[in-house]
Every structure is written in C-alpha cells, then in structure tokens.
From TrEMBL:
Organism classification: Eukaryota, Viridiplantae, Streptophyta, Embryophyta, Tracheophyta
Protein name per the record: Glycosyltransferase
Membrane topology annotation: Single-pass type II membrane protein
GO molecular function: pentosyltransferase activity
Keyword Glycoprotein among UniProt keywords: yes
Cellular component annotations (GO), alphabetically ordered: Golgi membrane
Glycosyltransferase 61 catalytic domain ranges (all copies): 100-289
C-alpha cells in the first residue's frame, strides 16, 4: 500500500508553527505560497503559517502552504523556473529581532536547530528580510548555509526544492531538547558551533585546582541604559579583593565577534537581568554565569531566561535576587507603595505594564557585602 505523501504542518504548538515536506515542492515568492504537489493527494489542503517562532506576532506576514494533486488542475500550479537539489528553509525576520536576546532565541538557535543537520547544503528563503541583521550575524548564517540567500518577498522566480521546511524548529527559549532535535543536538552543540564560528580559543574555563596561582577573569556587564549598576567602581574593588581579575564592558552594536572574544576570555560573567547576559553562549565550558535579578518577584522570568539555558550549555549558574533597598525604585516610590508591598498587583496587569516599572525604571545599587558570598561561590566552582 502506497503511503500518501503530504505536508506535515504542526500548528497546535502555542508558540510556533512548522511545516515540512519532501518531494515536488514549489515556492512562489510573489504570492508568499509554498505548493506541495503529490499524485497521492486526494484533495487540496491549505495552511496559513507564520514562519517565525512567535506565531502571535502581527507584523509577520503569513505564508500559504498548499497540498495540491498533480492531476487535471496542473495548469493552475506554479511552474518551476529555478530547480535546486538541496533542501530549503522558509523563515521570517522582523518580530522581536533587533533585541539581542531575541536574535538568539527567536532566530539563531532555531535556525541552527533546523539547518545544522544539512552541514551547509541548504538554502535560506527569507521573508521580511532585514539586510542589516543578516550582516550583523553573517558568520553564523554563512556557516549554516553555503548558498545564496533569497529575498522571497521580491523574488520573481518559482523555486523548486526536493525538501522544504516552512518556519523554524523551536523547543523553548534558548533551549534545545536533544530527544526532539535532529541528530540529538543539544545546547552544548550550539555553543560549540558558536565558538567555532567566531574562532574562539577557549573551550574550558580556568581550573583553579590545576592553576591555583592564576586569577580567574570576571566580566562585569555594564549596561548603559535601564537596569544598570549604579556603583560599578565599588563592585570592581570588591571583586578584585575576592581574587578576580575584572573586565568591565558592554557590547557595541554590531560587533558580535569582538564582544564574543572578550566573553570567551573570561571565566565568569555577572550582570543585571537583560539581553547582554545572552553572551553566556560564548563562555567556555564550566564558566560561571551570575544573574542579578531586579526587584520585585522577577525570579521566574529570570530563571526561564538564563538559568535553564546556561545550565544546559555546561555552565555553572548563580542567581542573586536584590532587596528593595538595592533598587533605585526607592528613589521614586515610598517603601509602603504597592510596587514593593504587592508586586503581583502589577504582574497581573500583564508583561508590558509590569515592565514599565520593574524593567524600564529600575537600576541596581548592589550591596557588595551581601553579594560577596556569590563571588566566593563562583570561585569555588572554578576550583572543581
């Protein structure tokens, strides 16, 4: 019995949509449509797919995926003008891209998860293309595909590929579940891939057991806007007194390679919750990530964002939750304000309302005496 060939479109996931088809697949950029032609297709079926890992995004145009029979209606099927022998992946930019954290969790890691199995023999067909974004991450894109990128929205061709995916594989934010991944890929594979892409020399952090006289390097991420440290010099003095060589800097827009090199040269990184901590992906194995969680009741979000991904990447993770007294929100609200006494009253109003206060208005005056044990714990990790 011949098994009917048809696209497999998974639309039930609350976060993302993904279709995969093998055989006679035709992509018409002008109509934003992908047509899968099969002699075994008894009737036409159609799906509207958001080719981005947050399917609720309203600024991402949908792609039509259609299963069509190759019979009497063939005249209405798009006719191939370019034939390729390699797989193709249709995905969109836009959405939250441009935010460093979302660049990785929404596109780069899902793209790795989808494309790495082909070892470069795959072509990317991109909707809502952002040339500046592709230039910023060119080393990653070029290592995943050795073929020319296609701006699908402005393509006059009907591109035909034997294997097409629409959307990107996605498990969770900065998470790879090996049991569900092609070739059982893991976060360890992703970070190894990044170190290779940017020619980063260090695969492992310092071992103080083997080099007891050396000072481990600590990177203090100095955010320039919201959620920044207000007492960096004091933090640096305390860290140096605790035995670290301190590097203090923040990433420059567009210079991924330069900052990746700085991060990889360090054995620990500390910073207030924010996109800059995404750079943990460039740390050597067994390094330490210390996330400073702002007030008030942001622990769940902080753990989801960095705790689980960094642990999966072979790092040690420490989480420091500041007290109200360490928050500059005290300069704006009295101590008995619901901002401090009833944080859930803001959380219940939704992420953006909560973020207006706890993420956009808050800086951190770190209590260095209260924080010092966390640096000593990081030192202990590096002695193992």
């Amino acid at each position: 019995m011949i098994q009917m060939a048809k696209p497999i479109c998974e639309l039930s996931n609350p976060r993302t949509e993904f279709c995969e088809m093998r055989g006679d697949v035709r992509i018409d950029g002008k109509s934003s449509s992908v047509v899968f032609v099969s002699p075994h297709q008894p009737r036409e079926e159609e799906w509207k797919v958001v080719p981005y890992v947050r399917k609720q995004m309203e600024n991402i145009p949908k792609v039509t995926v259609r299963a069509a029979a190759n019979g009497g209606a063939s005249a209405i099927l798009p006719q191939c003008t370019v034939n390729q022998a390699v797989p193709a992946i249709v995905f969109a930019l836009g959405g939250f891209t441009g935010n460093y954290y979302h660049d990785f969790t929404d596109v780069l890691l899902p793209l790795f998860l989808t494309a790495r199995q082909f070892d470069g023999d795959v072509q990317f067909l991109i909707t809502n293309i952002q040339p500046w974004w592709l230039l910023k991450y060119q080393p990653i894109i070029k290592r995943l595909s050795r073929y020319e990128l296609v701006d699908l929205d402005h393509s006059d061709e009907v591109l035909c590929h034997p294997h097409v995916m629409v959307g990107l594989r996605f498990h969770n934010d900065l998470i790879i579940e090996p049991a569900r991944a092609p070739n059982a890929y893991s976060m360890l594979d992703f970070t190894e891939f990044l170190r290779g892409t940017y020619s980063l020399p260090r695969d492992h952090a310092i071992s103080l057991r083997e080099h007891p006289s050396k000072k481990p390097r600590l990177l203090v991420v100095e955010r320039k806007g919201k959620r920044r440290f207000t007492n960096v010099p004091e933090i640096v003095r305390m860290a140096e007194a605790s035995g670290f060589e301190v590097v203090r800097t923040d990433a420059k827009f567009g210079d991924v390679a330069g900052f990746a090199s700085v991060v990889n040269s360090c054995d620990a990184i500390m910073g207030v919750h924010g996109a800059g901590l995404t750079n943990f992906v460039f740390l050597p194995l067994n390094a330490v990530l210390i996330q400073i969680v702002p007030c008030c009741e942001l622990e769940g979000m902080a753990s989801h964002t960095f705790r689980f991904p960094s642990s999966d990447a072979g790092l040690h993770y420490l989480e420091y939750n500041i007290t109200v007294e360490e928050s500059t929100l005290l300069d704006m609200y009295p101590r008995d304000h619901p901002v401090f006494t009833d944080p859930q009253s803001l959380h219940r109003q939704g992420f953006f309302k909560m973020g207006e206060v706890y993420l956009a208005k808050q800086n951190v005056r770190l209590d260095v005496n209260r924080f010092r044990p966390f640096l000593l714990k990081a030192m202990d990790f590096l002695r193992r």
